[in-house]
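Ligand: iron/sulfur cluster. Inputs:
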Amino acid sequence: MTEAKKMKTIKEIRVDVNKCNGCLSCEMSCSAAHAMPPYSSVNPARSRIAVIIDETTDAYVPIRAGDYAQAECSGRNLYVIEGKEYTECSFCPASCPSRDRFTEPDSGLPVKCDMCESLSLDEPMCVQVCHPGALSYVERQVEVVDAAEAKPHGEKEIGLEYLVKRYGLKDVAETVARMLKKAS
Ligand code: SF4
Ligand code: SF4
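Predicted complex:
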């Protein structure tokens, strides 16, 4: 007899592109919520959500930042939507070396949507400000996977993983050790 799959409820952001009007409130509020200190500035270049805009067809597609990809893009797909061609890159959520999207402009570090978990909000900031209802916070049943694998990576882990991939663990560890010595 096969073991019954363990399920759990997760909350995720549902995107209805037909309701998005390109107001960019989501980009501005996300960048404000993740400013240091929170709400001290607004800069959409720091947002973890980007709205892909095609004014000729009135098409707006909000994309939330996903994982950092170390390699250059190798996408070779073209999408045709209502007669207009889009590259695979257009809707890709990755922060990667092939473009600036989802890269913190001052530090060059990748940014990733953390579902606003660091902010203790009832709903993610981008959902709260999306008055046309293009973004909604919904529940979905998913299979339970290994706890370590399922653990969401916070901003610190993402930044450190990026630095380790770029400079190597030894270099990063030595730099942190130097900084600790200086600060003590
Ligand atoms: S706030 Fe909503 S309607 Fe405005 S750009 Fe973002 S997703 Fe689209
Ligand atoms: S859920 Fe939070 S971190 Fe993610 S895009 Fe929306 S506002 Fe930004």
